[in-house]
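Subgroup meeting minutes
Present: P.N., E.W., G.H.
Scribe: E.W.

1. P.N. recapped why we're keeping a running log of single-chain structure predictions: easier to compare across weeks, and new members can see raw inputs and outputs side by side.
2. G.H. added today's entry (438 aa).
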Amino acid sequence: MSSRIDKITIEKFWGDKTVSFDLEDDINFLIGVNGSGKTTIINLIAATLKGDYETLARVQFKSIRIDLLPKKSSSGLTKKAFIEVGKEIDENAPYPQISYKIKGYNDKETRKYWLNEFEEDYLLRHTITYTAVGHRYKRITKSDDPTIRDVNKALQELVNVSWLSIHRVSSGIKLVDDKGYESSIDRKIEELQIDLVKYFSQLNRKYAIETERFQKFIFESLIEPPNTEVGLGYKQEIDPENEKDALRHIFRHFRLDERTTNNKLDKYFDKYDSTLQNMQSADTITFEDIAYHWGIRKIHTVVQQWNNVIEKQKQINKTKDTFFQILNSLFQRKALFVNDKNELYIETQSGKHFPLTNLSSGEKQLLIILGQSLLQEEGVHIYIADEPELSLHVEWQEKLVKSLKSLNPNSQIIFATHSPDIVGEYSAFVIKVEDAIR
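Output recorded in log:
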């Protein structure tokens, strides 16, 4: 039961300030001058929703409460949910005590979680190190504390969150390989590639299931009794040329020899045409006429079923196709493609291929932002980003929000930005940080 954010309240922000503002369920921009606190606020929101304990311990605040959008129950009652984090300074402990209070829509009681001192010490003293293995990254050390697992599970039951902060790397995470440290944006490109391979593979599997159902339909149709309600009249809605073209497409999909099948198709439909003419003019209808008449009816049923498969394929790949259309309309003198292994690659106008890591920093940034939106699979999702305009061309900034909403109209966008081009036509959705801090 994923939801969106309704309101943010932060107490003792920077020690003596209160931050409070409402959010639209669609688009939101936090704007403010440098030093106004917008990046700190958006980091704190993301950390609360993602269970980022290191950030929660580092940022100066006493409590943050995130109220989620109310929902109506089947009986018409309003149901509420919230996530609250509290921080207490313990003079006898080196780090603050952090607690979570979480109330889901169906919870009668608030659930409470405490981050124990061992975990605080672990998270703040130990760097989480990753080593590169091909295109994948293996985590060498990790915490298996059950409290963290419980908190993360409770959070994931309420919200789906994408947190994008390419140019602000967590101080607790680094990558190690033979080439030294990779840049944060290249690391995110590698991670995105892995995630997209998995996603495209899932789409392919969904389509494969539909083609398997089609094959099952073909075999089952062999033993279906004929539809006796259909008469032998020659006037019918069937267009032989359309049927022939559809069969060619089906045979091509299942990799049948085109020369052989095309020859058989031509002969079959030529014969059908002659039997149709005979049924129109002759006084007597032959068994051959009847056989071809029922045969074309069978073909028509198969073609209709195949057209349903094609429509389902379009629906399965709709967002994926939109993703490629948007990116390729913005890229100059190059285009993005996917290979047989579901890996993305770039092809230039001259036909040269190169990997994603060869893109410019702005192109990488654009790919990451849109790729994250694609991976949301059109679900209810909170998309948080800090200064997404960095490295983006002005034209890309102008089209960014509309592109994101095309990929996932169900996302709640929360951006901290300096860019008037990012905001553009959405100026009604601006939240001035200076006005939210008291």
